[in-house]
Write a structure and sequence with these properties.
20% strand; Phenylalanyl-tRNA Synthetase, Chain B, domain 3; Uridine Diphospho-n-acetylenolpyruvylglucosamine Reductase, domain 3; alpha+beta; 6-stranded mixed beta sheet; 3 domains
């Protein structure tokens, strides 16, 4: 026999140990009419004077069981009247019955959130018990959840508290019987069309009978261990996050491939954190999304995938990038003209400077510097054009005798397809590409022993904050003197 004093004491101690309820709290209580929610309502009513609580019950009628649903609503109204707790009822009809459990859950969350905001309540109390915990953990396990899912339900999550999570269903049932607490039986809880009911009525009883009669308790203990592990890994993720992730903007995060090699578990938490920073919904990142990203990393080709909430993850040889916009592969049609008298041209975020030479520069030609090229001036025709690539481009790379498709050349050079549209080309009046800036010149314009005049071209990124940085540096030095 379960005595009221023992249950109440255990209930009160659990609330205090998990810091679920404080004096003067305003609580919403989800009441379906089933045994768990009615016992929860009863217990909260018992402790209300001690904590000076303001309680409001909430019942949602989905109209899934016709007259039975209306009778259940009527029962909840009478129960709340009996307990002296005000009640708000919400009516909703689910037209699309596919994935019924999730659709009902979405409705509940929306209703609860609206009421919390409307009445300025701090918390929502739900009647989940230790058996529900076991069922949830097994559901997550069978669906391939990670450690975050294996922790099951926690006593407190944001605004949700679960004060019955310490009790088995058998304890709750016995308590209701001993204290004459009426409840409404939802017959849909016995239908095996729902995954949770299959676990509740088939799998767990089978394990209890044939493997371990204390399986519910054992699974509940495992959930506590997974919770502690999850907390530890989250803290570790916070420590390594700055080392692994480069924040480009509020809409883009980049991870160098060399830094994430040979990592796995910590990456799940890093990826989930990035997803949360981009969407504000970290809880919507699941193991299935993690596996998709890991498959993307393993794939030798440059590719991209799309995650929920329009988050795109792209990968090339150098980096993994999370972005709120889809990667683009279309090159800009923007062009600039270089005349023979030009000295420096601004092209997007780059400067391209040119100079004519008649003698060998001091120190010789630095052909190893990819940002500088030396071209036989007599083998090209002005004006020159700076542009991006376009379909059909061909190019004879230095050291080769036959032209090659530009796309093929860039692939051979391991230039990611996410970067190819950014490549800057210089072509002469005849349409011949004479330089792929920063990569290679055309073999047709190389220097030879017969070269009379040389054209030197140099490309450099525009430094917009150069002068400001110099000024700040000078000010800092002055402060140190």
């Amino acid at each position: 026999m379960v005595e009221q004093k023992n249950i109440l004491t255990k209930f009160r101690d659990y609330i205090k140990s998990e810091n679920l309820i404080q004096p003067n709290d305003k609580l919403l209580i989800g009441v379906s009419g089933g045994i768990d929610s009615t016992v929860l309502l009863y217990l909260i009513k018992k402790i209300s004077p001690e904590f000076n609580l303001t309680a409001l019950a909430v019942h949602i009628n989905y109209h899934l069981r016709g007259k039975e649903s209306d009778e259940n609503e009527k029962f909840v109204k009478n129960l709340c009247y009996k307990f002296g707790i005000p009640l708000v009822t919400h009516h909703s009809k689910i037209k699309d019955k596919s994935n019924l459990e999730n659709r009902a859950r979405t409705i509940r969350i929306r209703v609860f959130k609206n009421l919390l905001e409307k009445y300025h309540f701090q918390k929502l109390a739900l009647g989940h018990n230790k058996n529900d915990q076991s069922e949830t953990l097994l559901l997550h396990l069978f669906r391939g959840s990670g450690i975050g899912g294996m922790k099951g339900m926690t006593p407190k999550t944001k605004y949700i508290i679960r004060p019955l999570l310490i009790f088995k269903r058998s304890e709750i049932t016995e308590f209701a019987k001993q204290n004459n607490i009426d409840f409404s039986e939802d017959l849909s809880n016995k239908k095996l069309i729902f995954d949770r009911n299959k676990i509740r009525h088939k799998i767990i009883p089978l394990i209890e009978k044939n493997i371990n009669p204390e399986v519910v308790e054992k699974i509940s203990n495992c959930a506590k261990i997974f919770k502690q592990t999850d907390v530890f890994l989250k803290r570790y993720c916070e420590e390594v996050f700055p080392e692994l992730v480069t924040k480009k903007s509020s809409e883009k995060f980049v991870l160098p491939m060399r830094k994430i090699a040979n990592k796995d578990v910590e990456l799940f938490y890093v990826f989930r954190k990035i997803f949360g920073l981009l969407t504000g919904a970290e809880q919507d990142f699941f193991t299935v999304h993690f596996h998709k990203i890991m498959e993307l990393i393993i794939n030798p080709k440059s590719r991209h995938i799309q995650l929920p909430k329009n988050i795109f993850v792209s990968k090339d040889n150098e980096k993994l990038e999370f972005s709120k916009s889809a990667p683009t592969f279309k090159s800009s049609e923007y062009t600039r003209t270089i005349r023979k008298t030009s000295r420096r041209i601004l092209f997007e975020n780059f400067y391209l400077s040119i100079s004519q030479m008649k003698s060998v520069p001091i120190g010789g030609y630095h052909f190893s510097g990819k940002n500088t090229s030396y071209i036989d001036l007599n083998k090209i025709e002005f004006p020159l054009t700076i542009r991006h690539r376009k379909p059909g481009d061909k190019f004879t790379p230095l050291g080769m005798k036959q032209p090659k498709k530009l796309k093929t050349f860039l692939i051979d050079e391991k230039i990611s397809k996410f970067e190819r549209h950014k490549i800057i080309l210089v072509e002469d009046k005849t349409g011949k590409i004479i330089w792929i800036a920063g990569i290679r010149i055309n073999d047709d314009v190389k220097l030879t022993s017969k070269t009379k005049q040389i054209l030197r071209m140099k490309i450099m990124k525009k430094l917009q904050l150069y002068r400001k940085a110099k000024r700040v540096e000078k000010e800092n030095l002055t402060d140190l003197l």
